[in-house]
Design goal:
Elements (H helix, E strand, L loop, with lengths): L2 E5 L5 H11 L8 H10 L4 E6 L2 E7 L2 E2 L6 H5 L10 E4 L1 E4 L8 H15 L4 E6 L4 H5 L4 E5 L10 E6 L5 H5 L4 E3 L4 H7 L7 E2 L6 H11 L5 H21 L6 E11 L2 E3 L5 H11 L3 E12 L2 E13 L4 H13 L19 E5 L2 H5 L3 H16 L1
Parallel strand pairs: 5-7, 10-11, 10-12
Antiparallel strand pairs: 1-2, 2-3, 3-6, 4-5, 7-9, 8-9, 12-13, 12-14, 14-15, 15-16
Helix pairs in contact: 1-2, 8-9, 10-11
Length: 377
């Protein structure tokens, strides 16, 4: 799926209203008149996402003088000040059929980038409590309950200040892009990088896996698996890096190896159950590959952690069935997240815990630091 971000035009109005109504209840949704006014007053901060030519989402907001959005801002778009200090977000909408595909992240990142380029001091928005962790991944900080009563809902003020960021963040001149839509990788990367974008790379992972396995010589299977995750990580990073040559792009991929077989993401619930059943009473390896591309520089490596599961029993069977039914295993290599219910089945770990989660962040931090230090030398 090819996703493009562009500025809005007045002719987009009817499609925008359809998406708005699909995302918010009537009391919170912007009216047609309000959307029309915004399109005319601040088209430069009214961005649209298109997937294969179809409008699938948008983000918009006025530029205001303070880091807090007041209800008056929602109701009177004329309060937009082109010379204001803070870019606000009035709405971040994605059509229901296109959610959980990284589109909202692309829209928000594009607006943050535009605000920085325009010399704003920061970006501000209001969100409901359950959305706070999502926006924190983009560097916004929860400033507490908002005074807004928009739509008779409870809101929280979220603010991203461009000034006064950590010195380390200032020293990082390149834009940093994580080539993964995994919320777990974003959360881990935020431990060392406070400001980064997220873009999803579209590659044929199955074809790459088949090629690597077919070309494997008489070597240890774990070495072949390490080559696989390194190649997948590099390919993901390369796709994004080709369009962002000045950026530092981080690609990553994770697989589970059990009995010299690769366990990727399950294809269905039966597959997820079978994977977890097969791992009971055994030790498997989790390998995460990382590839960092910056200009002509590249750092690529794989990290391995061994995980042992308890023997299978009736209780574990019930827990696995409930876990599979929840749907949570379906986007994870080996059909489990160790930070979830699967933690109850782990009898031992040998290696880096975060490699299992999806990103060996300590090794990533050292690699980034090394690249920056070499560049400054």
């Amino acid at each position: 799926m090819q996703v493009n971000i562009r500025k809005s035009e007045l002719q987009d109005l009817d499609e925008l209203k359809i998406i708005e109504d699909s995302c918010f209840p009537e009391a919170e949704a912007a009216t047609l008149a309000s959307l029309s006014e915004r399109l005319q007053l601040f088209p430069e901060s009214f961005l649209i996402a298109e997937a294969d030519g179809e409008m699938v989402g948008f983000v918009n907001g006025a530029v205001i003088d303070e880091p807090i959005i007041r209800d008056a801002h929602y109701h009177d778009a004329a309060l937009h000040n082109p010379e204001g200090a803070y870019q606000s977000v009035f709405g971040l909408d994605v059509s229901p059929a296109y959610r959980r595909q990284g589109i909202a992240g692309k829209l928000l990142t594009a607006l943050i980038d535009a605000a920085r380029q325009a010399g704003r001091k920061g970006l501000t928005l209001c969100c409901k409590e359950e959305k706070i962790p999502y926006y924190e991944k983009f560097g916004l900080v929860n400033s507490g309950k908002s005074s807004s009563t928009h739509g008779n809902a409870v809101w929280y003020d979220m603010i991203l200040h461009f000034e006064g960021e950590l010195d380390r963040g200032k020293r990082m001149d390149p834009k940093i892009i994580l080539a993964s839509q995994s919320p777990r990788r974003s959360e881990l990367l935020s431990l060392c990088i406070k400001d980064f974008a997220v873009q999803v790379a579209d590659i044929d992972e199955k074809a790459i896996e088949e090629r690597i396995l077919a070309e494997a010589e008489q070597e240890m299977f774990i070495d072949t698996a390490a080559e696989l995750v390194e190649t997948l990580a590099r390919e993901k990073a390369a796709v994004i890096h080709s369009d962002n040559r000045a950026a530092m792009v981080i690609g990553s991929d994770t697989v589970v190896v059990l009995d010299e077989k690769i366990l990727g993401k399950p294809v269905d619930e039966a597959d997820a159950y079978a994977m977890l059943r097969a791992m009971a009473g055994k030790t498997h390896s989790v390998l995460t590959g990382v590839s960092i591309l910056w200009g002509e520089k590249e750092v690529t490596f794989a990290s391995e952690t061994k995980v042992s599961f308890f023997e299978w029993d009736d209780r574990m069977d019930e827990e696995v069935q409930a876990y599979v039914a929840s749907g949570r295993p379906m986007d994870k290599a080996g059909a489990y997240g160790i930070q979830e219910e699967a933690a109850l089945w782990v009898s031992g770990i040998e290696g880096d815990y975060n490699t299992i989660v999806g990103l060996p962040v300590a090794l990533v931090d050292k690699a980034i630091h090394r690249l920056l230090t070499e560049a400054e030398a």
